[in-house]
Amino acid sequence: MSDPSPEELVEAVAHLIRDQLEQGTSVDLPTLGTFSVEHRPSQTTEDGARLPPRNAITFTPADAASSDQ
Amino acid sequence: MPSSLSSLLADTLGLSEEHAHTLLERLAQAIRDHADETGVHVSGLGTFRRRDGALTFEPEDDLAQRVNQRYEGLEAEAAPSPPPPAEADDSSSPAVPLFSPRFSPPPPSRLTAPLALTALDESPPGPPAVWEPRPDGDADEDASDVPPSAPADAPSAEDEAGTAPQRPARDRSTGPRVAAAVFVVLFLLGAGWLLLGQQGIVSTPQSVVSGESPPPTAESSEGAASSASSAPTDTAPADTAAAADDTSGAPGASSDEPPADARWGLVVASRDTRTAAEGQATTFRDRLADRALSVTIQTGEADNTTRHRVVVGDFSSRDAALEAMDEYDALLPEGVWLLRLE
Q1: I need a surface site. Which of A32, A53, B72, B258 has the fewest CB within 10 A?
Q2: CA distance A43 to chain B (A)
Q3: Of B59, B77, B94, which closes a domain?
Q4: Which fold has domain A8-43+52-64?
Q5: Of A21, A24, A49, the CB nearest to B78
Q6: Where are chain A's structural domains?
Q7: How many domains are there within chain B?
Q8: pLDDT, tens digit, for every residue of B112-161?
Q9: Which of B:23-62 have CB within 8 Å of A?
Q10: What are the tens digits of pLDDT across the range A3-27?
Q11: Residue B200 placed within a domain
């Protein structure tokens, strides 16, 4: 199979990352960073509002990604 | 352990894992090269930015919502009470959803944009999102998910078992007991009043109701006869005991106002036989021979017995009879009372 076009590559990568995150699985994009889902429990703010629990997508850049300017 | 995107991409595109890895590295390099302040947007994924030398990623709203499908529709709400203790676990939490859409939404000012969860327009229709306790593995993480309405101060099992201090039970029998006691006291007072009234010590209830004064006793009969004679007793000399009850039938004892032309006499003796009364009449005739006072015998009923009263005088008024009583006090015995003649 020939190399995918840049658009096809981006679409395929985005689709794969979404699928993994929706399943709660972390996924590593080489030399860029790691995507993961972290659960945030409900919290009560100072003004008395109780925030619902949620899942947050976090990104941890790879060392090369952070240092590469 | 993060999934290997290289192998996934290789499977998806039918490439070798090494080739896929190379393509991913190129993609990552392109992102890093163009991640400036404005960022690089990857469609369907999010935006990469470099801030303060660090590469950051902001997912698309659609992606952020998809990873929160289980919490879809939950919104922040005002906490009615202080937050529950942190050590509370999910096992003590009730099954009531914490952030159900049924709850009234909080003021908009309390919602911050990143935390406000909104329903996805393209999300498939289904039952309203209801937060459910996660598996036990998340117990520690969701410690603060305990609803503010958690029954932290609910009575414990020991309290329900009766070990808690018992409040004094209200004695519901106090009221009837007090009423019964009051009734008994009133009954005794009434009985005592009736008894004393019958003995002449106090006014009888009947006389009080009818407005009469108490009947004079044997000791006070003289005074009563001289003042009112409304209910005198028959305490004529030489026969005090026999005449004790000879007053009820006397006209003077009636509470009715006597007619203006009523005649009055002084009862000086009362006997149950005519002969005895005649003897007393003779005695008083002799005693009052020079006083121009008549001595007669009036027969009447008292307590279902016939009484023969020895009456001195025949006066046109009550006052005249009283004046005569005073005038002939020395000649009359004690216990004289007025009698309205018929």
Answers
A1: B258
A2: 7
A3: B59
A4: HU Protein; Chain A (4.10.520)
A5: A49
A6: 8-43+52-64
A7: 2
A8: 333 333 333 334 444 444 444 444 444 444 444 444 444 444 444 444 44
A9: 23-25, 27-29, 31-32, 42-46, 50, 53-57, 59
A10: 788 888 999 999 999 999 999 899 9
A11: no
